[in-house]
Amino acid sequence: MFDLSAFRLPDMALCSTTVRRLGEGAASIEDAAGRITRYLYANLTTGPDDEPACVLVRLFKTHPYGRLSPELQALVDARLGDKPANPGMKCLTLLASTGAVDGWNNPAQSSRFRAIPLSGPDALATLPMFSQLFAQFHIDLPFLENASSSLLLDQYATTFNAFYVPQALNSPYVPGQEDFVIPFGVQSVLGCGGILPTGEMFALIL
């Protein structure tokens, strides 16, 4: 376990090495993602009783609409309303989730974040945290809707970036103040991610 109040460079090296190995032998990308969120939730601790330091750990990845399951396509269609979905349209999907509430441990129970269509520059207008995440990751919108297109990365940015909201309370970028931030004592939000060789984006949010 790693006490975040005393987290040092050797701890970071050990933790990152372990995380990189969690995908070995995984049956699917969802399986690997689940291993990562469970590991971080269980092993990032705080206080003398080694309480979990994170209320919620989630891992997202973009997928083209045409490669989503029928169930996820239906969720995307519901968000789009009358607007038809292009098969190449990028959608941000929740691969894995681990948290302090039982319902947070199954992505299928997430009604809001399970599949988010990234259909244009206004797609994240109602999701301020993701809007800020994309900005800090240097990901440009709108997304190209060609099936072979990838997300656009700022030429001066790296392919791996960090996302950080130092104070979650009253932050316009962290939704659910009354039912999430305040009752669970969320102090901050930290994320990392970037562009995969396939051109898809991933984001790990704690």
Assign the CATH architecture.
2-Layer Sandwich
**CATH top level class name:** Alpha Beta
Shape: globular
Number of helices: 5
Order of helices and strands: EHHEEEHEEHEEEHEE
Estimate percent helicity: 25-40%
Number of separate structural domains: 1
Largest sheet: 6 strands, antiparallel
Strand content: 15-25%
Low-confidence stretches: 143-156
Q: Structural class, from secondary structure content?
A: alpha+beta
Separation, N- and C-terminal Cα atoms: 16 Å
Mean pLDDT: 85
Oligomer: single chain
Number of strands: 11
For the biggest β-sheet, the strand order reads: 6-5-4-11-10-9
Describe the structure.
The chain is α+β, with helices and mostly antiparallel strands. It has one domain: 2-Layer Sandwich (Beta-Lactamase), CATH 3.30.450. The chain has five helices and eleven strands. The protein is globular, with a radius of gyration of 17 Å.
Question: What is shown here, in short?
Answer:
This protein has 206 residues and is of the alpha+beta class. The chain contains five helices and eleven strands.
SSE map:
Blueprint: E1 2-3, H1 9-21, H2 29-43, E2 44-46, E3 51-52, E4 56-64, H3 70-80, E5 90-99, E6 115-117, H4 128-136, E7 139-140, E8 152-153, E9 160-165, H5 177-181, E10 189-195, E11 201-205
Parallel strand pairs: 1-2
Antiparallel strand pairs: 2-3, 4-5, 4-11, 5-6, 7-8, 9-10, 10-11
